[in-house]
Amino acid sequence: MAIRPSLLQRGDTIGLVTLGSPLDANIINTRVQFLRNMGFDIVFGRYVYSSDGIVAASAEQRADDLMNMFRDPSVKMILATRGGTGVQTILPYLDFEVIRQNPKIISGYSDITVLLNSLYQSSNLITFHSLMLIDFRPETPAYNFNQFFEATSTLNSPRLIQNPSNIALNGLVPGNVTGPIVGGNMTSLVNALGTPYEINTKGKILFLEETHSPTNMIFRYLTQLLMSGKFQDCIGIILGECTNCLVSYDTTYEDLINTLLVPLGKPLLINLTSGHGFYKAAIPIGANVNLNSTDNTLTVIESAVS
After folding, report:
1. For the chain, which terminus, N or C, has the lower number of CB atoms within 10 Å?
2. What is the pairing mode between strands 13-17 and 159-160?
3. DSSP states of 82-134
4. In angstroms, rounded to a whole number, what is the distance separating the alpha carbons of residues 166 and 181?
5. Residues marked as catalytic
6. Which catalytic residues are annotated (predicted)?
7. What confidence tens digit (pLDDT) does each residue in 96-141 have?
8. How many Cβ atoms are within 10 Å of 35's Cβ, its own excluded?
């Protein structure tokens, strides 16, 4: 059974880290004030405001920031400011045993995906494909906050992950399977293939979402995951949205799903609002979930926090 971090409560301390690309200081400051207004204390990693070209700081420096947050007993949750590019470069500098011994909530999506899955695989820690600092603002829909806090601040179980009422979850291949859920952003997962940190989907339910990739690129990604055995190894598939993904060669995202994934015969649920979409479900990476693509439901079997 995976390690469940302690739940988050108002008044707790959140550790802020920039693990990929830099983020404008004004954006950081306004989002931090939003969190403080919600009742949280904030501590800053040394390189939160840094900028070094494509990334905020060197891989070693960004990894040190993350490790210091895990070591700090006052920090209850670690929150990424953003994703961007370069998160996977910190992985060789992490001490996964220290992380295992100091489990904490860690949340993010986009390029943070590779970190979330690596922490589950190497530290057996449940992580959260959910909000980042950039999402803590008045314009964020209530659905996103409700999902985030229900996953990280309550012991409610089982927890049914539902889309907003006007957006349907659709089962394309009927079935009913239960197992740990892994995955997240497609680009990040494909980039990690062939490295020590590539995703393990054996006996898992694989969740994928993507943004700003034309469908000819999505074709490449899905094909690479197929040829790597990731779809063959998993027991079920959940697809989120492909937000702002342009159609190439008159072939849509849905066409690719029907051509490449439906023939696999695995339980397949599509259209989960998540990741880069306007609405963001909170997906606990490493937690046991039930995927019922006959009834079009996704249920977290037990609380992902303790």
Report:
1. N
2. unpaired
3. ---S-GGGGGGG--HHHHHHS--EEEE-GGGHHHHHHHHHHH-B-EEE---GG
4. 25
5. 110, 209, 276
6. 110 (nucleophile), 209 (charge relay system), 276 (charge relay system)
7. 999 999 999 999 999 999 999 999 999 999 999 999 999 999 999 9
8. 16
**Separation in Å, CA 229 to CA 83, 86, 223, 226, 268:** 26, 25, 10, 5, 17
Cα(294)–Cα(172) distance, integer angstroms: 9
pLDDT at 1: 86
Give CA angle at 260 (210, 218), nearest 5°: 30
What's the rounded Cα separation, in Å, for the pair 250 and 215?
9
Per-residue pLDDT tens digits for 153-205: 999 899 999 999 999 999 999 999 999 999 999 999 999 999 999 999 999 99
Contact 270, 237 (CB under 8 A): no
Q: Measured between alpha carbons, how far is 274 from 129 in angstroms, rounded to an integer?
A: 8
The number of C-alpha atoms within 13 Å of 172 and in the hemisphere containing its C-beta is 22
Which residue type occupies 83?
G
Tokens of 70: 């895990």
Q: Whole-angstrom Cα distance, residue 135 to residue 274?
A: 13
Q: Rounded CA gap, 131 and 281, in Å?
A: 9
Residues with Cβ within 8 Å of residue 101, at least 6 apart in sequence: none
Position 75 scores a pLDDT of 98
Residues 6+ positions from 233 with CB-CB distance below 8 Å: 200, 201, 202, 203, 204
What structural domains and CATH numbers belong to the chain?
Answer: 13-152 (3.40.50.10740), 159-300 (3.50.30.60)
Burial of 165 (0-12, 13-18, 19+ CB in 10 A): exposed
